[in-house]
Amino acid sequence: MADLTLYTNPMSRGRIARWMVEETGQPYDTVIVPFGPAMKSADYRAVNPMGKVPAVRHGDVVVTECAAICAYLADTFPEAKLAPPNPQRGSYYRWLFFAAGPLEAAVSNRSLGFEVPDERRRMIGYGSFEDVMDTLEIAVSTNPFVAGQAFTAADVYVGSHIAWGLQFGSIEKRQAFVDYLARVSDRPAFQRAREKDDAAAAAMQP
């Protein structure tokens, strides 16, 4: 039994955490949590009271929320070099949490058909969907990776959002996004994670 356990579902944001775990190079166990009663059960809520995936258990430590999982694993396994030193840490944190906050909120609201009225934009942290897309383009085109010249855990999180958004049309298909996704998805850890999640998804089909 490995010290690291990933609780996930291949049809969820668990794909982000799987990619991140693969990037660390650490051995890990996988627990597939089906949607429905199993995910809302008392046993799983003892891991994540929200009754959602993903979550990781590392020894006695439990971490939920994809951005937190990425940051925790990067710090816990420094040999993987997934968290940059200062001063690049500023950009790393900036774009990791930009994706966790404004990007996810703006994309989710747009997907649900909610548009912020112009006169209410000051009330919403992300302002407008257009502002978020323009800012995301700056994040992925200023340097090869969001924190500079080297790939980091922030690219796992930002790249996962862009991959999902381009696949399902919830993010605009700008060339900068396509080019960035090509850079970050051309990694062995990404390929391994995708193969494992695709196999798990196929196994869950009736």
Proportion of β residues? 5-15%
| DSSP strand count | 4
Structural class: alpha+beta
Strand order of the largest sheet: 2-1-3-4
Mean pLDDT: 96
Order of helices and strands: EHEHEEHHHHHH
Instruction: Specify the overall morphology.
Output: globular
Topology record:
Layout: E1 4-8, H1 14-24, E2 29-32, H2 42-45, E3 55-58, E4 61-64, H3 66-76, H4 88-111, H5 129-141, H6 153-168, H7 175-185, H8 188-204
Parallel strand pairs: 1-2
Antiparallel strand pairs: 1-3, 3-4
What does this structure look like?
The structure is a single chain. The chain has 206 residues and is of the alpha+beta class. The protein has eight helices and four strands, in the order βαβαββαααααα. It has helices spanning 14-24, 42-45, 66-76, 88-111, 129-141, 153-168, 175-185, 188-204, and strands spanning 4-8, 29-32, 55-58, 61-64. Strands 2-1-3-4 form a four-stranded mixed β-sheet, covered by helices on one side. Strand 1, helix 1 and strand 2 form a beta-alpha-beta unit. Helix 1 packs parallel to helix 3 and helix 4 (88-111) packs parallel to helix 6. The longest helix has 24 residues, at 88-111. The mean pLDDT is 96.
